[in-house]
Amino acid sequence: MKRLTLAEASAMLIGTQIGTGVLGLPYALRGGRILGLVLPLAAICTSYIGITLSEVDNIKEFLRMNKLYAWALTVVPPLLIYFAGLKSFVNGLWLAGTFGGVLYAGVLPTMMSLKAKKKYDSFHLHFPHSMAYLSGLVFLVVFIYSLASLV
């Protein structure tokens, strides 16, 4: 292992992130690079594990599926997306943002509004059914366009 001079170690620290900069000179001199790679990887892995377990529990509870089907529904779609060719992190963010935005900002509120109008007489939202259907249709077309653009 090569010993670094104070000037070399200082030059290394100038280019580091703020979080690793607080470790100072010991970070640059004693295998801090390995620590700087392992800790973020461990944080990402534990996040994936937590999200996966949470999603499995949600699917089991809300869709009333057994554990095996819940695991398959949680694990298989991301693998299919990966094997279909979406291997870029930026493209993954685009996909999640597009589908999440379309579903949660367009389709879901429209469906909730229509169901509330049908179920509750006291629910008053001052726009006609046709506007709700038009809004849902626009977001549905955006959703279909996003799916088509993947191919």
Topology of helices and strands:
Layout: H1 6-14, H2 18-21, H3 24-29, H4 32-62, H5 67-83, H6 89-119, H7 129-150
Helix pairs in contact: 4-5, 6-7
* Unreliable sequence segments: none
Give average pLDDT, whole number: 75
Instruction: Determine the strand fraction and express it as a percent band.
Output: under 5%
Q: What structural class do you assign from the helix and strand content?
A: mainly alpha
Order of helices and strands: HHHHHHH
Tell me, what's the shape?
elongated
For the largest beta-sheet, the strand count, sense and barrel status come to: none
Beta strand count? 0
What's the alpha carbon Rg, rounded to whole Å? 24 Å
**Helix content range of the residues, please?**
over 70%
If helices are DSSP runs of H or I spanning 4 or more residues, what is the number of helices? 7
Q: Distance N terminus to C terminus? A: 49 Å
